[in-house]
Amino acid sequence: MKCGVIIFPGSNCDHDCYHVLKHVFNQNVEFIWHKEADLKGFDIIVLPGGFSYGDYLRTGAIARFSPVMNAVIDFANNGGLVLGICNGFQILCEAGLLPGALMRNQSLRFVCKFVNLRVENHDSAFTNDCTENEVLNIPVAHAEGLYYTDRETLDRLNKNNQVLFRYCSNSGELTDEANPNGSLENIAGIMNAEGNVMGMMPHPDRSYEELLTSADGAKIFQSVLNMVQSN
Amino acid sequence: MNEPIVNLNLAQEHGLSEEEYRKILDILGRTPTFTELGIFSVMWSEHCSYKNSIALLKTLPKKGQHLLVEAGEENAGLVDIGDGLAVAFKIESHNHPSAVEPYQGAATGVGGILRDIFTMGARPIAALNSLRFGSLKNARVRYLFDGVVKGIGDYGNCFGVPTVGGEIYFDDSYQGNPLVNAMAVGIVKHDRVATATVKNTGASVMIIGSSTGKDGIHGATFASEEISEASEEKRPQVQVGDPFTEKLLMEATLEMIKNDLIVGIQDMGAAGITCSTSEMTAKGGCGMEIELAKVPLREKNMTPYEIMLSESQERMLLVAQDGKEDEINAICEKWDLESEIIGQVTSGKNIVVKNNGETVADIPADVLVLGGGAPVYYRETKKPDYIDAAEAFDVNTIPKPNDYNSVLVSLLSSPNIASKEWVVQQYDHMVRSNTVNLPGSDAAVIRIKGIEKGLALKTDCNSRFVYLNPRTGTQIAVAESARNVVCSGGKPVAITNCLNFGNPYKPEIYWQFKEAIGGMSDACLALKTPVTGGNVSFYNENPMGAVYPTPVIGMLGILENMNHATTSFFKNENDMIVLLGENSGHVGGSEYLKLQLDKVTGACPALDLEFEARLQDCCLEAIQNGFVNSAHDTSEGGLAVALAECCFLNPKDNFGADITINETDRMDFILFGEDQSRVIVSLNSGDYGKLSSITEKHKVPNSVLGTVTSGNLKINALIDSNVNQLERAYRGSIGNEMDIEGNI
User: Fold this and answer.
1) Predicted TM-score of the model (pTM)
2) Chain B, 399-438: which have a CB under 8 Å from a chain A CB?
3) Which stretch of DSSP H or E encloses residue B405?
4) What domains are there in chain A, each with its CATH number?
5) Which of A109, B290, B361, B365 is 20 to 30 Å apart from A92, CA to CA?
6) ipTM for the complex?
7) How far is CA B256 from CA B191, B210, B331, B344, in A?
């Protein structure tokens, strides 16, 4: 199995994603420079968090024109597993691989803290290691994390079980207080209709062992690895 | 080109004294050119030359077994942590720019200190800060506070360094003159440490990073004056930061160092090309010739004077290894950065600056720099009158409180004590996935991937104590930062400092400065934490007066094993709560006294450094033995506040405590006084014997305070408070203040 972590200019969670796959899960991982045009041989592609192109213009809006994104689109269209975390999620939305957009947080401030996520669909490539409605403790760190889309798309996401995570209280209730950015229906992470491209604002790459306050994020990576191994 | 005529008047307008101007004429044997005058004025400004502080700074203890670089030799201190790794760390002020343009002032403060770290080949792994503002009741203060926090956050977050800790205080003395001190910590393999010293004659001098613009010209000179209404006009002297370019610049720099492409490298901060060229050559005893027409510019028609003095951010000056220029260019191209050869290292001793072939400056590098020909002054000192008056204040005139519960709530909601989560949530404090103790702990703890050790980091200074007694107050700043590191499981090994004072030409201010340096020496010797470098910021005055003397300490500690990482909050019901050290009821300069009387007065708490060292050794040994479940330093707000924090800081669960303390006549002083050298630990009562044998060995008194419960916080018959209510007072306070409309 081979995993790839894309580096855009300004990516800053690239090392964390590399570390968790390489040293926590003992996988074969390579960094991929954003000017690469070929993703042959990879099983999993991660778009890490950070500030690609400084978040200038609009988050993810410039990175989506990086040469590697054409290859990511081909990879996804061929059924490859793509995981976008934070800025990676924003880039996937800009590239049209995921529906909707990430807007400025309702507070208009950057927010970094541990939040609770309720697993809404535990039967996906990205959540199969979780239990039904499990509450995961995973941190967020973003200024543009308010998930927004039109009503029709939202209905479709809900109907197809494409919403993977929602912000919730300790006990799993979907409250306004638990929503750190004002996301529509507390949405924290979604996947595409085909189920092979996922984006989430919270950072499983910062919560993969107890020393880091929570190891819940490891379940996301474990799920993806389970998926590849089962194929 | 029409340049102004250089004469004494113009020199004085540049902030040079008559004596200094005469010295320049002597050195050059002629009248300086306009460009040369600009160069001298920035290099001999307080900010660059340390002319009024260096003589005293040299008395600080600088030797220690872990130090790889001595203070002043390179851009930051370098401490060996074993396993072939070293830590580079430094703190710096950006007070003046932040006073007029809080967002960019703070942002570029972070950018500058990060460059100091990666210039040495170290990858920044943590950032901290130390901030001071006036009262949040003031709309302008809220504007400054909001802007500074945003500036620090936006820069560090985008760059990708976790801002893991810091401290923030609010006091009227900072009303017009906030303090913004930024600290950065980086890690480097011993064999990849880069230097700012060059000797290679003929080697190419290159500028990489951003192009050069007209921003920040004379920023260093501006930082060497008092803040006044006219300061607002200096807003254009504040630089503008671009954290995205800085991130690219760091990646490119580290790649060049890894591939051994460069001889030496120096970041461009204050005084830009002027400072970097003169410092690099003066250290190596060589010269440099540069051609300004080669410097990539942001705007047309910049004069040599402007190019030499520009403080445009995100630039580096480097000297290439022979024949490696193309590889350097290729790395810069990969990271979308400018790179240009602008000159050569020469065998002479002078910085020769040419503009299209015409010499515009020709100055011996050595005379420009600190430790070379830059002026060194000893200023007059006079003990200020307020000191004895404050010390004579009779604290027994403070009325005893009727309701201890409401005092506790008031203290917890005081912005100086209250939770800083409104701030820290705006900082990415987890990127790089090394953050073990989250902000709000006694010290930040970060792990280092691949080895067992970790780092404990803390910035600290209670400036009220320094104001009341600069010597003891500064000792306390060192001791408390070390104590915080110890409570988190680390051994304090070295400090960096940021000395924020008023105008050094005022004898009272210089007395404070001199006493503070003396106190720092005492404490650093006693605690074996040498000074690795730092920064002095004078002229922190506005028309209302000087700020409290604020010598901020940035403490570095090493955890031998990550298992030693300890947090401040209670973990288990029925755990025993034990105080290491003794209560004696010092209330001078306390938050309690400020709350009751709205005054900062009284005697600074006493500190016995020899005892403090034993207490810290004792606490660390207990932690390393593995039975200490929590350890918390008692500081602002005293014992009662510290106990309340132990009860509600646990993110998973709140606890209560049943506490019994020997009654005295002034229980308010015992509970809310700010005695030094005290630590609250919790442990399983079965381990008390082990703790006692350790405290006995170190001759440190311990007393059992009580037990962790699931109920209220109860102290004697005086306090019986619902912990959730205490937590709400503590957590909501600053956010509520900032929600008020009408910031200006």
Assistant:
1) 0.96
2) 421, 424-433, 435-436, 438
3) helix B404-413
4) 2-230 (3.40.50.880)
5) A109
6) 0.97
7) 14, 17, 7, 19
